[in-house]
Design a protein that fits this description.
The chain has about 260 residues and is α/β, with parallel strands linked by helices. About 45% of the residues lie in helices and about 15% in strands. A seven-stranded parallel sheet has the order 3-2-1-4-5-6-7, sandwiched between helices.
Length: about 260
């Protein structure tokens, strides 16, 4: 299927690796030009070079922390009027809520709730003015089924979800959709760090926990960043103009609920 977005421009946050990189690659495969951000310059430049070589599209790399005003402004200077925005940022660390002070909570909210809202505020009016826009927020399966040790993420990302539920109904009339992608267990650095945390807490080995988690999933495995990226690309497509305010869970069937 031709997704109808060739020649458009996407701003993809935290795209040097993991799920953000998967989204950038899938958009690039559709002929979308990219502005990509991430904190690590070396990994970001390597990803940009690989995407240019593989897909023959324009890729601008903007190193910076999207959770900061400086990082956001750098990204927006490079791409002030994107057709597509993919919000993404690394999740806060696992732990026990008794150990989290106010500053820890504020940092989580700034990264996983306020930063995407501020990025949306910066670009959504321009999208509505040209009658096309696709915004995808990478959140977490924890929005549907909270994970006890990820309380910081549970709280911040659920706050973003509630905000999007309201805003997305106001923009869709202008062919600007806003949706959330909720990853379950994908084979990323984030998942590996969670296994390391739980291995220390439980006394079990990393490999033991990893194998058990994969086997417990109905799919019998973890997801790939390519699968995730292709789901993102579809939500960014011309054909997806009637999908907004949705929370698409990609977890191999791990969530047991009907709704």
């Amino acid at each position: 299927m031709d997704l109808g977005i060739r020649g458009k421009t996407a701003l993809v946050c935290a795209a040097s690796k993991g799920l953000g990189k998967g989204c950038a690659a899938s958009l690039a495969a559709e002929g979308v030009n990219l502005v990509i951000t991430a904190r690590g310059r070396e990994a970001l430049e390597a990803t940009a070079a690989a995407l240019r070589e593989r897909f023959g599209i324009q890729v601008t790399a903007v190193p910076g922390d999207i959770s900061t005003e400086e990082g956001r402004q750098a990204a927006l200077r490079a791409c002030a009027s994107p057709d597509i925005l993919v919000n993404n940022a690394g999740g806060p660390p696992p732990g026990d809520f008794r150990d989290w002070d106010r500053e820890t909570w504020i940092k989580a909210l700034e990264t996983n709730m306020l930063a995407p809202i501020l990025m949306i505020r910066a670009v959504v009016d321009g999208m509505m003015a040209k009658s096309f826009g696709r915004i995808v927020n990478i959140t977490s399966g924890a929005v549907k089924y909270p994970i006890p040790e990820l309380g910081l993420s549970n709280g911040a990302r659920t706050g973003l979800t509630g905000f999007i539920a309201g805003l997305s109904r106001k923009t869709v009339r202008h062919n600007v959709t806003i949706n959330n992608l909720l990853p379950g267990p994908f084979d990323t650095d984030r998942l590996r760090s969670n296994f390391q945390f739980n291995a220390k807490a439980s006394g079990k080995s990393y490999e033991e926990l990893r194998k058990a988690r994969a086997e417990a999933n109905p799919a019998g495995r973890f997801g790939s960043i390519e699968e995730f990226g292709d789901a993102c690309a579809y939500l960014c497509s011309a054909q997806a103009g009637y999908i907004t305010g949705q929370n698409l869970l990609l977890d191999g069937g791990a969530y047991p609920g009907t709704f």
